[in-house]
Amino acid sequence: MGLSYELETLREEIKRLTVRIIELGWRRITLAMEVGKIKKSLNLPFEDPAVEKALEEEVLRLCDLQGVDREFALNLLSLLISESKRFQRALFQELSE
Fold first, then answer.
1. Are the beta carbons of 46 and 39 closer than 8 angstroms?
2. Whole-angstrom Cα distance, residue 60 to residue 62?
3. Please, are residues 80 and 86 in contact by the beta-carbon 8 Å criterion?
4. Residue 44 falls in which region: left (phi positive, over 0), alpha (psi -120 to 50) or beta
């Protein structure tokens, strides 16, 4: 079995985790869309810097507790937030028409 088997096993685990991350990312987008609908009905802006800052602080706290690389976590958080905003922006435009 050796290293080739170990390599394939690791690649399979990476693939499973990647698929799970995509599923969770999409779930996050669907939740952000629900939040966007509520914000639109309350005439709130789709951006909320205070919420984003609080989330960033929580992510950094997690990094410190679990030894996660902060740059990696902040890059991932930035992507998640920007995609949520992209979908919410489109939703706001759609609901305004």
1. yes
2. 5
3. no
4. beta
